[in-house]
Amino acid sequence: MKKLIRFIGKLMLWFVLLSVAAVALFRFVPVPGTPLMAIRSVQSISMGKRPVVSYRWVPYDQISDHLKRAVIASEDQRFYVHNGFDRIEIEKAIKENKTRKKARGASTISQQTAKNLFLWPQSSWFRKGLETW
Q: Which superfamily, per CATH, for 31-132?
């Protein structure tokens, strides 16, 4: 049992170290690809097509201030007043989702970035938990 606990502890430590290292690295180095890009490439190959991955990295300071404001306005109006998790919107979504057929999301730009850069596109509580890390 001690070996199992030690193994799980080491696994968790490696997870933390590698995830912090990845975030630190991508602070200075352009992201080479995302899980969604890999998924789409595999789907193309499985359909007998040649995968096409086409994107161009643009440094943050070269993105128009108008575009930055437009993204914030459309995706996360309270971006500047929360710490990555908008508790007010999360509570609203939980209340609304009790009575709606289609769930309403409450992901912030920070959570969407984590999902799009490091995680897979399908929604699950496990993935949502990883977004919070």
A: Biosynthetic peptidoglycan transglycosylase-like (1.10.3810.10)
> Comparing C-alpha atoms, which of 30, 34, 37 is closest to residue 59?
30
For the stretch 75-125, pLDDT in tens is: 888 888 888 888 888 888 888 888 887 777 778 888 888 888 888 777 777
List the domain boundaries for the chain: 1-30, 31-132
User: 122 vs 17, 118, 128, CA distance in Å?
Assistant: 25, 13, 10
CA-based R_g, the chain, Å: 18
Tell if the pTM clears 0.90, that is, is over it: no
Distances (CA, A) of 50 to 31, 37, 39, 53, 55: 22, 13, 13, 10, 16
Distance CA 103, CA 96 (A): 8
